[in-house]
Design a protein that fits this description.
The protein is mostly helical. 51% of the residues lie in helices and 4% in strands. A two-stranded antiparallel sheet has the order 1-2.
């Protein structure tokens, strides 16, 4: 069994979602900002998670994603299987004779290994990961606003010139007739 970065990011994003979905759907842009993952990549992952029935989506203002089931009912194995392209037979990329030789010599070893890894991943729930994050001190309220929602700074008003008739720039100085400059 190979778990790629895709599976790891999906588990991390689902943990983030489970931590923060208490009252409303969570926007992928906020998960993206917290996780440092591109928004388009998260959209691909969450599309697969939605097809697998692990998340629900809400469109429109205030929309985002929520878990389709309680966090204690979602295993890490389900999340990984939803986003990874895992096949039952890991020997799919080998030639026929090579695959047959590997199966005959060590097939039992690898199938036992894969089943044990899968058993472990099935035993760990999303709620376990949330509890682990809370124990580390990660607060669900740690929300990073997307770049578009940051408040704009208003410029401070500039003080007025105390002397009237004095040019305030080189360009203004150039527009005063030569006789007035002396």
């Amino acid at each position: 069994m190979r778990i790629t970065t895709r599976g790891q990011l999906a588990v991390s994003a689902m943990t983030d979602l489970a931590l923060r979905q208490k009252m409303r759907p969570v926007a992928l842009s906020t998960i993206s900002a917290r996780q440092g993952t591109s928004l388009s990549y998260l959209e691909q992952l969450f599309s697969a998670l939605r097809r697998a029935g692990l998340v629900d989506s809400t469109r429109g203002p205030g929309g985002g994603y929520t878990l389709a089931r309680r966090a204690d009912q979602v295993s890490v194995a389900e999340i990984i299987l939803a986003v990874e392209n895992l096949k039952a037979d890991e020997l799919q990329n080998m030639g026929v004779t090579q695959a047959a030789q590997v199966k005959s010599m060590t097939g039992e070893l690898w199938s036992t290994f894969n089943s044990r890894v899968m058993e472990y991943l099935q035993s760990v729930t999303l709620q376990d990961l949330v509890a682990e994050q809370l124990a580390k001190g990660v607060a669900p309220d740690d929300v990073v606003a997307p770049a578009a929602a940051k408040p704009k700074l208003t410029p401070k008003p500039r003080p007025l010139m105390a002397r009237v008739g004095v040019p305030n720039s080189v360009f203004a100085l150039g527009s005063i007739p030569l006789l007035q400059r002396r």
